[in-house]
Amino acid sequence: MKKAHIEALLENNSRWAETFAADNPGIFDALAAQQNPAYLWIGCSDSRIPANQVMGLLPGEVFVHRNVGNIVHAMDLNCHSVIQFAVDELQVSDIIVGGHYDCGAIKAVLSKKDYGMMNNWLSSIKDVYNNNRANFALIDEQAKKDRLCELNVIEQVKNVCKSDEVQRAWARGQNLCVHGLIYSVHDGRLRDLNCSVDSNDALEEIYRLKL
Would you identify the CATH topology of the domain 35-210? Predict the structure, then answer.
């Protein structure tokens, strides 16, 4: 990136900081003192979906983890470290898996193209497709993409709930709920996929930890 590009970003930041401080007196002092978010957002890296803005929240009100395809892999130490910190240290009350329509990861899976290292990362979405083949039998290509976006969010909600950090929180009586939302880049709206979970009772028995 050219230095001029960085200078432009710094100028943008200066204008934003001045305007934001004027619109929200004392906000930076409050943020410097602590962060106390109620929500953890696990979303896609897509540049069109900034977590704070789409939920109408200010800085400091949502803890964020993002990756390609809003995936929660069992062996992803980065993601699970974020979940543990959010649950144990920040004591968030809600974890939101936030997917979106027109997702590049979903398009990549359905294209069946070779994406190199990304093939391994996207394999879990391929499993979602394979395990739900009946959902795709009689619908067109756009509907397939949209439905796989939704099913992927629902699957990642399950993966969050399977995690030991979330199950430990439930075992000690912590008030914690996991939700699945999906965002439309066409109208800016979030939609509830009605897959919220607030205890491990909703998990298949093999995934329930004895804590």
Answer: Beta-carbonic Anhydrase; Chain A (3.40.1050)
